[in-house]
Inverse folding.
């Protein structure tokens, strides 16, 4: 697969979720994201509201990173984020519920947040694919779709089991069949990684080392110093 630098950039949520991030760090993220031509910047909800130039969307997270929050708390966090200017919310499910096959609980969790994220705003559901069996990945994706999600997403980038994999992305893409977007995040540090995820079916990428990934398209693949939670 080949994409131009600008085409690849438009797949990217340029991300900063480090707990030590400062307002100055977020301002630098926005400036870099605008310069690189990414789709959005993704920041922690406590950093909202933020000013962005026209055409640069704002994404945030809720129930992050463990997913072990009451659904009502996730919904309240999402609602406040929308009120403070977020265009997209990436929520974390209860991973144990998925692995135990309690997909009705997963669906109810997602539905609660969906009710707080109005039409026209995007809800992505982080299933933490590296911590799930294949059956649980499929079930979590189906539950997310039934609850009205717009995307399913691989990972928080904080789980010790790891981040995105080509296998998980392909399975997620097959399960949602183009009806939902698929976001790959976690450990994507090179252009080759990014292109492999897109070829497997990812329609959005969560990156913090975005410049290095884009530079890799010109043959200058650079390892980042860390993925900032992605």
């Amino acid at each position: 697969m080949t994409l131009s630098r600008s085409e690849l950039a438009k797949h990217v949520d340029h991300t900063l979720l480090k707990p030590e991030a400062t307002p100055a760090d977020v301002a630098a993220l926005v400036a870099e994201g605008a310069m690189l031509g990414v789709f959005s910047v993704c920041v922690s909800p406590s950093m909202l509201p933020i000013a962005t130039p026209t055409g640069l969307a704002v994404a945030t997270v809720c129930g992050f990173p463990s997913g072990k929050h009451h659904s009502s708390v996730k919904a309240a966090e999402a609602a406040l984020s929308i009120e403070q200017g977020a265009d997209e919310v990436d929520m974390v499910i209860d991973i144990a519920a998925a692995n135990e096959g309690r997909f009705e609980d997963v669906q109810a969790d997602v539905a609660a947040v969906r009710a707080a994220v109005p039409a026209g705003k995007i809800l992505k559901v982080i299933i933490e694919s590296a911590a799930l069996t294949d059956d649980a990945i499929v079930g979590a994706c189906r539950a997310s779709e039934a609850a009205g999600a717009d995307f399913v997403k691989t990972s928080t980038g904080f789980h010790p089991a790891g981040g995105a994999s080509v296998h998980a992305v392909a399975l997620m893409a097959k399960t949602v069949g183009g009806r939902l977007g698929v976001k790959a995040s976690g450990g994507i540090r090179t252009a080759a990684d990014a292109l492999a995820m897109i070829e497997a079916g990812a329609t959005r990428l969560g990156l913090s080392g975005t410049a290095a990934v884009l530079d890799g398209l010109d043959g200058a693949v650079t390892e980042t110093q860390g993925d900032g939670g992605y």
In short: The first helix runs from residue 5 to 9. Residues 220-228 have pLDDT under 50 and may be disordered. The chain is about 40% helix and 15% strand. The radius of gyration is 16 Å.
